[in-house]
Amino acid sequence: MIISGWNARYGEILKEFNYKRKEDIASAKVLDSLLGKRDQIKKIQKKISNQNIFVVGSGPSLPKAVPILKSFKKTVKIAADSSVKYLVENGITPDIIVTDLDGDEEILRKIGKSNTIFVVHAHGDNISKLKQSKNFKHCIGTTQTKPFGKIQNFGGFTDGDRAVFLASYFNAKKIILFGMDFGKKIGKFSNTKQSERIIKIKKLKKGKYLLEWLSKKTKSELFTTSSSITGFKKISFQNINNIIT
Question: Which domains does the chain carry?
């Protein structure tokens, strides 16, 4: 079931970014045709439901977060695609990766052979990349439009905020953000080209807005170690031990 009110939010996204609903639907149909028959929903639900979840983005504060992420080995980590290469290089393999497949293809293919669950998002301009999903042992497909077949809609727009929506959808106990800065300074790990900087900042602004909207609806407790987000309690790394109980 789609989160209540999402269709209105999706309508805003289509209008603000001049996206086409029919192109999103076409992409979702392609992804649906590529996914295996195994249902991964129960697997991802077991990982998230009533658990403390770390959501990791690729903002400028990511390097500072790595030591604390490494120290909590058993805490489930959901990573936005653009943070994955840096995490892996620092000895951290995410439990779940949320991606629209614009990250490091080699790294994703390598991790795809592991037990990491990939949540692959289909949208109008990534149809040519969707075949990468065949490389992933455990894969769930998502869309911003109406769910169908093997395609889900958990809500969210960018990889980072979709990761939070995912954790909320499966009723995480507590969701704690790392490297989710949502500012005008773009993290170097996102590999954003100079020509794409303006649209990237606009997307980050929308992602933050959606998280603030989610904060009024979710049953999960929300925290951030990054920049302030309305509806999320701002905490320091030193206080993580007090939160993870």
Answer: 6-243 (3.90.1480)
Q: Which helix (H) or strand (E) holds 34?
A: helix 21-34
Cα–Cα distances (Å) from 99 to 5, 126, 228, in that order, read 23, 11, 24
Band (188; pLDDT cuts 50, 70, 90)? low
When pLDDT is averaged across residues 193-221 and rounded to a whole number, the result is 89
51-75 core/surface letters (b: 16 or more CB in 10 A; e: else): bbbbbbbbbbbbeebbebbeeeeeb
Q: What are phi and psi of 21, to 5 degrees?
A: -55, -45
The string of DSSP codes covering 128-180 is: GGGGGGGG-SEEEEE-SS--BTTEE----SSHHHHHHHHHHHTT-SEEEEES-
Summarised one tens digit per residue, pLDDT across range 123-135 is: 999 999 999 999 9
Question: What distance in Å separates the CA atoms of residue 123 and residue 108, rounded to the nearest whole number?
Answer: 19
Amino acid at 105: E
